[in-house]
Every structure is written in C-alpha cells, then in structure tokens.
Amino acid sequence: MTATKGLEGIVAAASSISSIIDGVLTYRGINIDELAEQATFEEVAYLLWHGKLPTQSELDGLIAQLGEFAEVPSEVIESLRLYPKDSNSMAALRTVVSSLALYDGEANDMSREANVRKAVKLQAQLPTVVAAFARIRQGLEPVAPKKGVGVAYNFLYMLSGKEPAQVAVEAMDKALVLHADHELNASTFAARVTVATLSDIYSGVVSAIGALKGPLHGGANEAVMVMLDDIGSLDNVEPYIQNKLNNKQKIMGFGHRVYKDGDPRAKHLQQMSRQLGELNGDSTLYEMSVKIEDLVTGQKGLKPNVDFYSASCYTMLGIPRDLFTPIFAISRVSGWTAHVLEQFEDNRLIRPRAEYVGPVGQHYVPIAKRG
Ligand SMILES: CC(=O)SCCNC(=O)CCNC(=O)[C@H](O)C(C)(C)COP(=O)(O)OP(=O)(O)OC[C@H]1O[C@@H](n2cnc3c(N)ncnc32)[C@H](O)[C@@H]1OP(=O)(O)O
Ligand SMILES: O=C([O-])CC(=O)C(=O)O
After folding, report:
1. ipTM of the assembly?
2. Ligand 2 mean position to 53 CA, how many Å?
C-alpha cells in the first residue's frame, strides 16, 4: 500500500454535480462561462440541488422559500452577541452553523424531503448569520432579511442596512455563481466524508466550513487581500513580489491542484475587478492585481485561481477582508448541500487506508523503565 500525497489524481467519488474536464468547468453539464454570464445564483443553486434549471414557478418557489427560512432563531442571534468581538469570522461561522442545528426540529431527519429543505434553510441562513456577525461586532443591530429578493441582494442589504446598488448586487450575484460548486475540492470532500457516516447535513456543512477556512483553500481570498494591503501601492508590486519569488514563498491566489492551465472562473472575476475599478473611479487594486499576475505567471507559469481577483472585487464592493471567506461559504453551501444529497442517494462509508511508515516490532515499556 503506497500513499499518494494529498490524494493527487485519486478519483474518490462518482458525481453528476460538477465536472472539470480538460480545464473546462461545468455545473450539471452547463459551462461555467454560460452560467456566469446568464444565470442568477438562485437558478444555479436549484440546478445543483435538482439537476435541472428551474422553471419560472420553481424559481419563484425557491426565492419564496429562501425568504421564509432566512430569519434565524433569536437565540442564535443572541449567542452571536456573546462571541468575542475579535473572533475569527470563519470560526464564528463554523460555530453558529453548528448551533443552527440545535434549533431545527428536523436536524436529524434523514429523509430526502427534509434534507432538501435543510439545504434551502442553510442557504437562506448563512447570509443572515454572516451579516449579523459583521454588524454585531461593530456594535450595530442586525438587519432582518427581506423577503422576495435574491441571496446577493439580501446579503448586501443585511450587511449595510441600506438598499444595495444594482451594480453591486449583480457583481455579488456573479461571484456567488462562480463559487457555487467545484467537484471534489477539500471542503466538499470533507462534507461528503462526514455525512457518509450517516451523520446529518449540518455536521457535513460544519466540517466543510472548517476545511474552507484554511488559506490553501477558501481562506486564500482573504490572504490575497492581506498581500494587496501589504503591498500598498502599484510601485511596490514589483519589489514585493520579486522578493517573495526569490525566497520561494507562495503567492496567494495562484496555482491549483487540478487546473494547470488556468482557472476558468478567474477571467470573470478579473473582468469584474476591472469594471468595479472603473465604476469606483479608482482602479489601483485592479492594476496591482494585473501586475502581480504578469510577474507570477511570467516567472513561475502559475495562473490566478478563483480567489485572486475576488479579493479586489469584494474590497471594491466595500466588504471587509475577513468576510471574504464567509462569502465563499455563502455560495459554496449550495454545492456542499448538493453533494450531501448526492452522497445520501447511494451512500457508502468513506474510509480509505493509510500507508504505515512508523516503527514496527516495538514493545510496551513500564513507565518506571522509560528513559
Ligand atoms: C478555492 C481554492 O481552494 S483555489 C486554491 C486557493 N489556494 C491558494 O491560492 C494558495 C496558494 N496556492 C497553493 O498553495 C497551491 O497552488 C495549491 C494549494 C492551490 C495547490 O497545491 P498543490 O496541488 O499541492 O501544488 P504544490 O503545492 O505541490 O505546487 C506545485 C509547485 O508549484 C509551486 N506553487 C504552487 N502554488 C504556488 C504559489 N501560489 N506560489 C508560489 N509557488 C507555488 C509549489 O511551491 C511547487 O513547487 P515545487 O515543485 O518547486 O516544490
Ligand atoms: O477545487 C479545488 O481544489 C479548490 C477550488 O478551486 C474550489 O473549491 O473552488
């Protein structure tokens, strides 16, 4: 038995939700480029859960259900007030999502009907708790969700307490579409491993949030913004990046386990970053990002992944950098829950083997005789 480090190239599940074939990403067989240009996030969530695009009445039904479920129990909001104000936002999200299960009477109902409903609930509630967390730590009151609006609108509205601009809603909606699913990435795999023990959907999503938090995965979008803030100016890009490259340090937002020739989502986020810069009348972050890309791709051949240009986009939308990864979770919960539903359809415990590389033939030594 020989281990493959990081399970690279190992096919660990059969799935009909999303595919990456020859560098092309599809959700349920539809190219991500088409979805990014034409679909709303709610259409995409429906597509991931049900395997087909919704009709108008199915879409209206989903939006109504999201509105119905978006409010979270007052006990959950009260518990958010008790978190330290400097809590890590992903740790807070992981904790609050775990607590949502305590107030859901059907949390342990394993029927498909209940699980589909819980997928919609989680999708509806994540934006509410992220926005409430962000406001409470600033000493502001949470804003109740609106009914009959999309996830992107509602999140921006609950975050700021103001009607969001149409252009901001459209940008956020596209970002949500682009992050919704991605085959067997680490957080989705974590969710599938958890529920394959026949644990519940909340446990699967909590596992996934924990995996997404790390900077090699979803946490990279925040790390990119930390880097852009550290660089500080267009003039400082070259010396800063050159120094990192010379010292063989990682440049966050570059590289990918599966895409070696570029992440198809990055171009959409790059375009969004350029457009937001033009609209804001300040393209510095976009120009800095392009300069970083030129240097890193030019010297290392590494291409930007989905996390790279999302950092400048979210900043230009006025979002604090430690909410970037929670926003990723707001989108990816659609994919996680679709994978949980798929796992339950034909479940088998996920339990690989380890290659043992430790000592053999050892014996127990009584404590008094240990040196
Ligand atoms: C939504 C997402 O999860 S997308 C990924 C988000 N993560 C990041 O942006 C973090 C930065 N990127 C990385 O750390 C990696 O590229 C990962 C984690 C995404 C993929 O990791 P792996 O498939 O294990 O690639 P691995 O780390 O083996 O890299 C292969 C080579 O490229 C180098 N490399 C990979 N990414 C980078 C990077 N961002 N900067 C500099 N060098 C890099 C590695 O150092 C390694 O070089 P070597 O062969 O000389 O040792
Ligand atoms: O697939 C991966 O390994 C990481 C990624 O891009 C994602 O989760 O969107």
Report:
1. 0.99
2. 23
